[in-house]
Specification:
By secondary structure, this protein is α/β, with parallel strands linked by helices. It folds into three domains: 75-221, 3-Layer(aba) Sandwich (Oxidized Rhodanese, domain 1); 225-318, Rhodanese-like domain (Oxidized Rhodanese, domain 1, 3-Layer(aba) Sandwich); 324-483, Immunoglobulin-like, CATH 2.60.40.10. The protein contains 13 helices and 25 strands. The strands form seven sheets. It has a five-stranded parallel sheet with strand order 1-8-7-2-4. α7 packs across α12. The chain is globular, with a radius of gyration of 23 Å.
Length: 497
């Protein structure tokens, strides 16, 4: 297929993805109910609002389901081979009375990693998984070990991890990987989470348990984390766990795109048959490197591969980009209008690029390694000369979030040719909540519209540009503040004096 033919296929797939995503509920992973308000509650918590306020008018999935007689949860079929990573709720039927640890059902620690839970498994402690992150990246090992120790977890404890159903789909699986990387041997994820726990009528509490502080001593397992040289040598299989839209903006050569939400079904890991079909293109005899922006989203795909017995390693797009050549352009100006903006309103993001005069003047906010830069020098129009500018991904006009729905797997589209520019909008936890395709206005000026259908708070913007197979990221270059929409009282008629 010619280069132009490939571009047409990719464009058609992106349009199909947009149509599919418009037909889906907001939370495709956690769509137990069509109007589950839990994602909004979680988003509000991550934006810094008080938990009490966030939960005052929200309900968790299990609370809504309990009041809905027609709600039926169908669990995927499980192979006995999954028991080394998953603990089914059915396995706890007798543990509450026969175990030497009746208060925690046979485990030393039950760990809830939900961002803002309203109820907890009896005896569970709480560490929201965002506490392990800093600006979207995993904190240093010493800090993670300190967090675990202060929560009462030692490296010798048996740990059961669970989290509530979230649209990001990364909480439990990523924390599981963190513990395994720290050398924690005895750790599992509760299959079905608290939803299945409540459905089985097991006891819950409204507040988490607090354990005495201990010392957590990590013994790193480096075999679970890939390095740049390991990925670059080309002897491994590579899976990109980001969304199809993010994949289209740049990817590691020869990567196979399997979006992280494809391994999940209603917040649970899919059954063995479905997962084997999803990974049918992978050779079980070769290592598999799974990556996403920071590695967090890749945790779900890594966990699925771990359950199937693959030799899987985690990696990050950020580390790959830090070792790549860079484009010789700088971001001269960026602004949003309006800013602050009202919740649900369109926000116009405009950027202006320029040519970097010298290597030393290259914008330090861009992801790159100054010791390994091949500079593409561009004269005159800094972004011209790459063919017709065209954005790869379109946003979902109803939600402001780039979604693909049930896309399945995609191989890499062609990266050669056009200069592409996109704005990535992230919340306070570093999660992507919006992706805007930027169009050329004139010369080096580009703009696009973000529909701010998000909770009130501050959002950071990163600009991603790509040309001739090289991608450059200008991270955290703009902050957009979103305020709550005022209620329209004009439709109410005043009664009485």
């Amino acid at each position: 297929m010619t280069g132009n033919g490939t571009k047409w296929v990719v464009t058609l797939l992106a349009i199909m993805a947009l149509l599919i995503s418009n037909s889906l509920a907001y939370c495709s992973i956690c769509a137990a109910l069509k109007a589950d308000p839990w994602p909004n509650s979680a988003q509000t918590f991550l934006n810094g609002n008080s938990t009490a306020q966030a939960l005052s008018d929200q309900s968790t999935t299990q609370q809504v389901a309990a009041s809905n007689p027609s709600y039926v949860r169908v669990d995927p079929e499980r192979s006995p081979s999954f028991l080394h990573v998953l603990a089914p709720v059915s396995s706890f039927l007798q543990k509450g009375t026969s175990s030497s640890k009746p208060s925690t059902y046979g485990y030393d620690v039950i760990l809830d990693v939900s961002p803002a839970a309203s109820e907890y498994i009896r005896g569970a402690i709480s560490i929201p998984y965002a506490e392990f992150m800093n600006n979207g990246s995993l904190k240093p090992v010493s800090e993670v070990a300190k967090i675990l120790g202060e929560a009462g977890i030692s490296e010798r404890d048996s740990v059961l991890v669970y989290g509530q159903c979230l649209p990001c789909g990364v909480d439990s699986a990523y924390v599981y990987w963190i513990l395994k990387y720290l050398g924690h041997d005895n750790v599992k994820i509760l299959d079905g989470g608290i939803d299945d726990w409540v459905a089985a009528k097991f006891p819950t509490e409204t507040v988490p348990k607090v354990l005495p502080k201990v010392t957590y001593t990590p013994k790193l397992n480096p075999g679970l984390l890939a390095t740049y040289d390991y990925v670059k040598n080309g002897k491994v299989q590579i899976v990109d766990a980001r969304s199809f839209q993010e994949f289209g903006l740049g990817y590691i050569p020869k990567a196979l795109n399997i979006p992280y939400d494809q391994v999940m079904d209603n917040g649970q890991l899919k059954g063995e048959a479905d997962l084997r079909d999803l990974f049918s293109s992978l050779d079980r005899t070769l290592p598999v490197v799974v990556y996403s922006d920071t590695g967090a989203q890749a945790g779900s795909v890594w966990f699925a591969l771990e359950a199937l017995g693959y030799n899987a390693l985690l990696y990050s797009w950020q580390d790959w980009m830090a070792n790549q050549p860079s484009l010789n352009i700088v971001l001269e100006d960026i602004h949003a209008d309006p800013n602050p903006a009202t919740q649900g309103s369109p926000v116009k993001i405009t950027v202006l690029f320029g040519e970097a005069k010298k290597i030393a003047n290259t914008d330090s906010t861009a992801t790159g390694n100054a010791t390994n830069q091949t500079i593409l020098t561009i004269k005159g129009c800094a972004t011209c000369g790459f063919g017709s500018p065209q954005g790869f991904a379109n946003i979902n006009k109803s939600s402001g979030v780039a979604q693909l729905g049930n896309s399945g797997r995609m191989t890499a589209p062609s990266q050669a040719g056009s200069f592409t520019c996109a704005a990535m909008v992230k919340d306070s936890a570093g999660s992507n909540v919006g992706q805007v395709s930027m169009k050329q206005i004139a010369g080096d000026e580009y703009s696009g519209i973000w529909n701010a259908n998000v909770g009130p708070g501050s959002y950071k913007v990163a600009i991603v540009v790509s040309a001739s197979g090289i991608t450059k990221i200008f991270d955290n270059v703009l902050e957009i503040k979103i305020v709550g929409a005022e209620k329209d009282t004009s439709k109410y008629k005043k009664v009485g004096n």
